[in-house]
């Protein structure tokens, strides 16, 4: 879970999300795509922040006798980033453009969610695995 007093731990979660987002966006930026390093880092960072915030809110409500479900936030993030990624995709002639960039943004959100939830071990190998997949044209 998360300790509301552990600001250093929360900062580490946010830093991991931003760093992995930057790494994911590097390849996209290198190849001249609009959604590059800053976009990927911001998607990962904002996803981590929203996840941390939902976990803290869950603890606060639980302490006061209320109920909430932080997994609903993850569902909402997945839908929101799907909408944003869908806006990147377009058809030109017989080809579909920006599918890989859209998928990469979705991965940045997933990494942010994982890092925000404290699952940095699952998030760390993501840039290497994603790069291998993208390079396997």
From TrEMBL:
Q: Where in the cell is it found?
A: Cell inner membrane; Cell membrane
Task: Report the domain of life of the source organism.
Answer: Bacteria
Keyword set, alphabetical order: Cell inner membrane, Cell membrane, Membrane, Transmembrane, Transmembrane helix
Keyword Hydrolase applies: no
Write out the similarity annotation. Belongs to the MgtC/SapB family.
Name of the protein in question: Protein MgtC
Where is it mainly found?
membrane
The MgtC/SapB/SrpB/YhiD N-terminal domain covers 14-123
Cited InterPro entries = MgtC/SapB/SrpB/YhiD_fam (IPR003416), MgtC_SapB_SrpB_YhiD_N (IPR049177)
State the organism named in the record: Sphingomonas oryzagri
Transmembrane domains' residue ranges: 7-26, 38-59, 71-91, 103-123
Membrane topology label: Multi-pass membrane protein
